[in-house]
């Protein structure tokens, strides 16, 4: 039996969690899932500005702190620059052996995606194929303390250690599917132990010390979901079920780079999972493509006191009329009212492809402080910011077009 815990559900999750997972109880492997689709584009922009960046920058100091304590760490913190991430880990902790998985970034080979991205080709910010568990297992086989990759599929982070520890073949469909189910359960961290769970929140205790999930996995693929003793949160089938249906389309065919898992075959009782069936892996790999989709800006202004809604209405109408007078057109505008007739906040937002027009909009809210209805406040931060819109476009390519390799930093 091996114990696999996950202590990051996204880049920005609780920084104390990985430390607590390593220090507060027995664990063999710790996975850290940093990447969402938009995260890749953020990292790509950082790398464009500075070639030494493009990874989750809080990971190297964390790895230096918890690495080499007998727990193998697997993370997709490498983002779009896993080699740079690994080098920074080595700089901070020379004693650690780090294995890097590369090969998921296909930004230089967008032609592989064909017409799927033709309309956005010149605006693509990142393109990364989802890679599976077997490169993770290969990296662990080097004896590395830490395995760093880019767009490793979320559930495959946990499946990799199972493949490594138990020697599962690449056609052990049922075992692989069970491992994927386990990886899916823990990939979002505390969503499996009471966080964001509608079934348990009213009676839940220990919010500030909520335990992150751990899989106790057997060689046959069955596993139990648990957490460290004394940690907050809960282990209950209801929370696990909510996580199981998270981001699921067809429950009978959950596609991953390693296997197609049939979630309808899951038998869950007292946090123990058995009976999962799998089907051969898909012929194509999914590619996460992000692209520039314009600009947006949202301004706010607040009206306290009687007739607050009426004054906010006047403010909205004034902004719209001034935008018309300036002959500004946007792809979309939206006004929202938050509050009641004694305290009302107006949120007014615009979206479009013309940055200059969006910049002009940012100058139309603040003047209402003097030229709008009486009592306006809440303008201390000045003009609203202009922010880039990053959109997501999934694509597919033949799996043989993606070749991964392992680089070891001794």
Describe this structure in words.
The structure is a single chain. By secondary structure, the protein is α+β, with helices and mostly antiparallel strands. It contains 11 helices and 18 strands. It has helices spanning 16-23, 37-49, 59-66, 82-92, 133-140, 156-166, 173-186, 237-244, 308-325, 355-361, 368-371; strands at residues 2-6, 29-32, 72-75, 98-102, 124-129, 146-148, 214-217, 223-226, 254-255, 260-262, 267-269, 272-274, 277-279, 284-304, 332-340, 343-352, 387-398, 405-409. The longest helix is centred in the last third of the chain and has 18 residues, at 308-325. The two termini are 29 Å apart. 44% of the residues are buried.
Largest β sheet strand count, sense and barrel closure:
10 strands, mixed
Along the chain, the helix and strand elements come as EHEHHEHEEHEHHEEHEEEEEEHEEHHEE
Structure annotation, total helices: 11
Beta-strand content bin:
25-35%
Unreliable parts: none
Helix content: 25-40%
Cross-sheet strand order for the largest sheet: 11-12-8-7-1-2-3-6-4-18
Number of strands: 18
Spatial separation of the terminal alpha carbons: 29 Å
Give the overall form: globular
Q: From the helix content, strand content and strand pairing, which structural class follows? A: alpha+beta
The radius of gyration over CA amounts to 24 Å
Please tell me the overall pLDDT: 95
